[in-house]
Design a protein that fits this description.
globular; alpha/beta; Beta Polymerase, domain 2; DNA polymerase, domain 1; binds zinc ion; 658 residues; Beta Polymerase, domain 3; 7-stranded parallel β-sheet; 5-stranded mixed β-sheet
């Protein structure tokens, strides 16, 4: 008999948590079962197999007791504690807990107060308007309960996640790649395709493409990988399987001469391929996963590389992230239509990070060292402001101290500039959490909405525009508040937000947290087209999540953001301008990622009011003159708002400062 899947074990643990809650268990016990269920559901390998070896405790959130419960479940098909609890409550009561708006806690209340023990009894009580006699319940619940019961509610919910966030799926995909490459040895090629390769927000399945001289052997070897739960078919053209974490896997095998066709076809998206096929037909060409059939000659061309496929169709190569049928085919037909997309290497620093001063897990110095390790030139420390509401936050007095700590750390940590910043809350009326005077002491202010999401579009738009127009706000964090697969964006008029941001030079963020990726690809592209400067950052809450920059870059690439359309290509040699120790400008920043754009306030130097390069130089000169012998750290200036497009020379800057 096959072992239980991770999903089945997770469902059992989840049910046990519900039963304990129904039984009135203390809340952290209930939560422990729920988080264990989540960890099991997402585990890349078989938890049943781990438990058999006594190693299920290696999964986060699973201790010895839980491991025993899992073993009991594997051996007997049930968990004794769950059996006991099930016997204690009428089965109808358990059914009620699955109704939306009820849950175990309310079911318990309904049972003890009104003696309700089944969906039928609940319906009667709702119809008789008895629910409202219980404290905390009202007519609204009566109405929603009736709707849910009429819709056939009361069955256990389908808990399996339908889509998985990119990082987790990519981790599994890369394990499969490594495993298959190892098994197949030399000569075989295995690659990722599908939405994983397009770096989408979330994915439903893993597409693998391989070429080998022994296809059947390779297809069968998929079953031997420890991430694979079951294989439903395997033959010389490929295999279908399912991972322990619930992802379906499609492995397709081709001859090396067809690799390009297969990669192109299975990287998608469906919309991109449909548009591609339609355009090809007009040229007398038929595109499929096997090749390109030429009507005129009757010959099918196969391509070893994707470049070959696009070339054959008269198109420039299209990066996977752009293959969404969002204008990429038209662009690929014109000589210089496709952007050179931004890459991780283009990033020079990170302007959104947290430390133990708010809800982060590392110190300023630890974050600074880790950022330096990544090759960054600067890192802004932006802890949460006072009304954040998630626990730890930074009061105005503490912020003063925090600025000092950042300055001190900056002295100690060589080779990187640590900027004193804040992620300041945008209050419901659009005002900020700190007084302007205090904000004025910071190098970098990013403002975000963290509360009152449901306020309505007009109010929310006014709220955000007020923050955008605040002269000390340099960027808006996670501008729509969405959580991928979990929370919709709040209602806000983005066109109005983009217009305000473009007008004031306030940057909008692509937050790299893989749950957020906010702005989204579509929105970031619209913002950039509206003239908004985009800042890509990690929102790291610990050293390890500085890595989130990667998902921000993925979104930026899907948003067509490049570094050849603005900025850098025009200032190719503007990287470092050493003004004899008076002013060091580490660069005109990358394209849309104008980290510095219209003049960052750095080390007290406020350049945003400068109206021209000359004016800017004047301000720098005045500042330098007041601080003889002192290095001033700053960035370059923005090309879009000023007419001159060459950087100032050392001599020019020296001339103003002397
Ligand atoms: Zn935030
Ligand atoms: Zn943050």
């Amino acid at each position: 008999m096959p072992e239980l899947s991770n999903t089945a074990i997770a469902d059992a643990l989840e049910e046990l948590g519900d039963l304990y809650e129904l039984d009135g268990a203390i809340v952290h016990r209930v939560l422990a079962y729920r988080s264990a269920a989540k960890a099991v559901r997402e585990a890349p390998v078989s938890v049943a197999a781990l438990a058999r070896e006594g190693r299920a405790v290696e999964v986060a959130g699973i201790g010895k007791t839980l491991q025993e419960k899992i073993l009991a479940l594997l051996d007997t098909g049930t968990i004794p504690a769950a059996e006991r609890l099930r016997a204690k409550f009428p089965p109808g009561l358990i059914a009620i807990t699955h109704l939306p708006g009820i849950g175990p806690k309310r079911a318990r209340l309904l049972h003890s107060e009104l003696g309700i023990d089944s969906p039928e009894a609940l319906r009667e009580a709702a119809l008789g308007e008895h629910l409202r006699t219980v404290r905390g319940l009202g007519p609204k619940l009566e109405a929603s309960v009736l709707v849910a019961l009429d819709a056939g509610g009361g069955r256990p919910p389908q808990r399996a996640a339908s889509r998985i966030l990119l990082p987790r799926a990519l981790e599994v995909g890369e394990m499969l790649l490594a495993g298959l490459r190892e098994i197949s040895g030399d000569g075989a090629q295995v690659e990722l395709a599908g939405s994983l390769r397009r770096q989408a927000d979330s994915v439903k399945d893993i597409d693998l493409i391989a070429t080998t001289t022994r296809p059947t052997t390779l297809a069968r070897s998929l079953a031997r990988l420890e991430e694979i739960e079951s294989v439903s078919s395997a033959g010389k053209s490929g295999a279908r399987a399912r991972t322990h974490s619930g992802l379906s896997v499609d492995l397709r095998i081709a001859r090396p001469a067809q690799l390009g066709n297969l990669m192109q076809h299975f990287t998608g998206s469906g919309a991109h391929n449909a548009a591609l096929r339609e355009a090809a037909v007009r040229r007398g060409l038929h595109v499929s996963e096997y090749g390109i059939l030429d009507d005129a000659t009757g010959i099918t061309h196969t391509c070893a590389s994707e470049q070959g496929v696009y070339e054959c169709l008269g198109l420039a190569y299209i990066e996977p992230e752009l293959r969404e049928d969002r204008g990429e085919l038209e662009a690929a037909r014109s000589a210089d239509g496709l952007p050179r997309l931004i890459a991780l290497d283009d990033i020079r620093g990170d302007l959104h990070s947290h430390t133990i001063a708010s809800d982060g897990h590392n110190t300023i110095e630890e974050m600074g060292l880790a950022a330096r390790e990544r090759g960054y030139e600067y890192l802004a420390i932006t802890d949460h402001s006072a009304s954040h509401g998630f626990g730890n936050d930074v009061s105005p007095e503490q912020l003063g101290r925090q600025i000092e700590l950042i300055r001190e750390a900056n002295e100690r940590v060589a080779g990187i500039e640590l900027l004193a910043g804040s992620e300041v809350n945008i209050l419901p009326d659009g005002s900020l959490d700190y007084e302007d005077q205090l904000l004025g002491e910071l190098d970098w202010v990013i403002a975000s909405v963290h509360t009152s999401f449901g306020m309505g579009e007009q109010k929310m738009t006014e709220r955000m525009i007020a923050a955008i127009e605040h002269p000390l706000v340099r960027a808006i964090g996670h501008p729509t508040g969405r959580l991928i697969e979990r929370r919709a964006p709040y209602a806000v008029d983005l066109d109005a937000v983009f217009a305000a941001a473009a007008r004031t030079g306030t940057m909008l963020e692509i937050n790299g947290n893989p749950d957020r990726r906010d702005l989204s690809d579509v929105n970031a592209r619209a913002a950039a087209r509206a003239g908004v400067k985009i800042v890509i950052d990690s929102d790291a809450h610990r050293v390890a999540t500085l890595e989130n920059m990667r998902w921000g870059i993925a979104t930026a690439r899907r948003a067509w953001l490049g570094s050849d359309d603005v900025g850098r290509s025009q200032f190719a040699r503007a990287d470092v301008i050493d003004l004899g120790g008076a002013f060091v400008a580490p660069g005109f920043v990358d394209s849309h990622i104008h980290l510095t754009a219209t003049g960052l306030t750095l080390t007290g130097l406020y350049l945003r009011h400068a109206t021209s390069r000359g004016h800017c130089l004047q301000l720098i000169g005045d500042y330098a003159a007041a601080r003889p012998g002192q290095a001033i750290w700053g960035h370059g200036w923005d090309d879009s708002s000023w007419p001159e497009d060459t950087p100032p020379t050392t001599a020019a800057a020296m001339a103003v400062s002397s």
